[in-house]
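Look at one record.

>
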Amino acid sequence: MRIGDRAVLIVPALAALLGGLWGVRRGSMWQDEATTYAVAGRALPDLWRTLGNVDAVHGCYYLLLHPLIRLMGDAVPAEVVIRIPSVLATAAAAAGVAAVGRRLVSAPAGLYAGLAYAAAPVVVFHAQEGRPYALVAAAVVEATRLLSTALHDPSRNTWVRYGVTVAVACLLNLFAVLALAAHAVTVLVAAARGGGKGVAPRWACAAAAALLAVLPVVWTAFGQRGQVAWLERPGLPEVKALVTRFAGTGALLAATVVLVVLGLTTNRVGDLAGTVGRTPGGPGRLPGIAAFAVPLALLPPALLLAVSQIHPLYQDRYVLFSMAGLAMVLGAGLARAVRLLPQAAPGWVRAAAALALPALLLGASLPAQAAVRRIDSRPDDPAAVARIIGSQRRPGDAVLFLPSIRRLVAEAYPASFRGVRDAALRAGGAASGTLAGRELPAGEIAVSLGAAPRVWVVSRPHPAPADLSSSRDSAKRLLLRESYRRERTVRVLGYAVRLYTRVSP
């Protein structure tokens, strides 16, 4: 089965693009996306001031989205604007996975690998996220592709491009540095097999240069480490959830395991064209698909889980790029499964099998594909809060947020809060260089609220006492108890919207 080189890259990229655009407008940005929109849309001086105080770890991403948000304005829904870069990055990553699979195994394996990546529900989830993780994955995939090129043709230009790409990945999210551990294993395997003189030192120099370029962000982000203080030490449930998100459950998981076994034995049995060429600098064979894919799939999650036993940092989205390693092995496994058909089988049978196997896997993933496109696939629905207040507000209404970070609803959907006075706000997020603004001292909130006839309160449905322990939040709750009566409560995904009316003196 001969596949054109361009088709191997274009078909997965197009599949990822169409899959990402399908349902990209869900009708709401969840809180993290609201943060993206609110912060990246600020004027550059305000954005720069914000990054000095908070979220520097995402600074490069916000600066990348800033001109896009400013250019689009209100012409395109905000949620679509911030998700388009992730859709495009996922298409690029699918093409990159296909390119690596083609180089290391064969054109069919590359095509299948790219399609496996594009169709993975966890990949689609982040393709439709206005957050940096799809872009990080694309950068890591490109760095992996450049590494495979450098091991074949270790030119200075290739190593420079590799170092720049690694730096970009780490600037988009510092946890991309975990991919370097996977690449280190690949380089060591190449060196052990005699795959090129001086490969290890050149890789080390490129990686070190990339890390040096990221040090200023590391330094700033370290000072803001309190942002991830809410993370907890991961255990077996988190490991199981990670496996489920990446490999599926039930029949899909069983099929994934079988294909992984087939893919990992590809080079050993020699039934597909592996990387058996020689480098210009040495006589040895280059590492095959297992040496690239297995470390990328396993090492970053394993390292993050291990480190998080000491200092909790684990979130599965930080290692989304590891899905590329699994997709590479799946592609090799699918290609080998087709090749295992008897040679005497008619051509149409082999062609049908070549189409049927990936189609069956895609069909098995469709329920999960549909699920990640629903609003309830995310933790909350700020747009629902905005619709409630926007449709029922009256002149003179006030609003309080418990705690203040819930103000991101108003930052993301300001039109719905127009005319509703934020009684506790001293300075907005842009002016104060914070995510959700700075509030008045506790003693001044009552004066600011005055005799507002109605007060909207936005909070989580059942906030933990620790989340409302600040003096400002205590003052808000005391005011509501003493001077207002709760008229109604509306609960939506991740939020409760309560309306209070003033009690006559």
